[in-house]
Amino acid sequence: MSLKTLPLVFINLGGEMLYILDQRLQAHNTSDDNSEKVMNDITATMFSKDFVDELLKPQQLYSHRTLKTVLTRLAHASIMRLNPASMDKLYELMLMAFKYQVFLCPRPKDLLLITYNHIDTIRELVKDTPVVVNQVDEMHRKMIEVYSSLSEGEFQLLRQTLLIFFQDMHVRLSLFLKNKVQNPNGRFALSTSGPVPHGIYVPGLIRVFDSKGREVRRSQFPTGGTYSSSVKEGCFELRGDRVITLGVNMYTVHHPEETQTCKAPPVKTNDTPNPLAKEELNLLARLMGSMKDENKSKTETGFWINLFTTDEEEDQASDSRGADDSMFGLISIQAMQDEQAATELAQIAGQFAEQKQPEFTSCTKGDDLLAMMDDL
Fold this sequence. Notes:
The chain is mainly alpha-helical. It has helices spanning 6-27, 32-46, 49-55, 64-75, 84-104, 111-125, 130-147, 152-166, 174-178, 278-289, 311-321, 338-350, 369-372; strands spanning 80-81, 172-173, 194-195, 205-209, 215-220, 227-228, 261-262, 334-335. Strands 1-8 form a two-stranded antiparallel ribbon. Helix 1 crosses helix 4 (64-75). The model is unreliable at 253-257, 264-273, 321-338 and 352-372 (pLDDT under 50).
């Protein structure tokens, strides 16, 4: 069942990335043209037909290291560039946001509603570019085709796979801490109140039936919370009322602190490579690397933007990286001139390329990803 988990992970994490970038672009009063270009370029890459088709093929769920590599190249699909410390923290933000949504998922099937909320919001971000909107719609149709026939048991296995994938991640986010949905140790505090999943009875009632199926007695018990029935089921079609709000954009320009992470004890994640997924990754990499913007001006310049408050915080994060990967301060996103960015990315890619690049060997399945995506 993990073979159908990857599209859910990719779309939801990619959606969270777009939310964060959009929030910071607005907070820094970035020009509409630059903001629109960033949103369109990243979305067009994420929902490219060839890439989506390959993504939907049966394959095992990637490790954190490999998934972050793919998302890094996705973030670099436009005129923006992120340094390694920034991408590490951005990845943590995306991961913890999606983990929280999976935790609160009313029932396993509602994983689709969370994903569709992400797709709906992404569609709204690129609504002024019909070509990109069509790409989003096509991906949405394919998701409906692939997942609509799954049973409740299969959705439960999907949710369990996701929870296993997230289990060692306990990064503290200021938004969650402020709303008291996350404890100081990074673990979530789940509420014992609220609406129950659609089609489920409100807890608190015990009914006893006889051998003929007739109800003979009722009694009640304290539930420890306040529950209510779900008004209606969310829409699983291309457009409609999803009912639940999990997966919508929770960041606003009025709350820049909500895209901050807090220092936390180091957490070791399992990045053991999976050789079985190497060929699929290589093909994904080639697909992403082949997506060129033919209309892009050679003289087009990038722009600078800080995802968080000060350069000192970024310096502190970079300095602490050598000693402890999870003891950063805050994230900073940097945008550069295209020529400069291409040069620096080429230098990074040179460490992994096997042809026309300095040799570098590694057993991990994501080592050649950057070299294959150089044409973005």
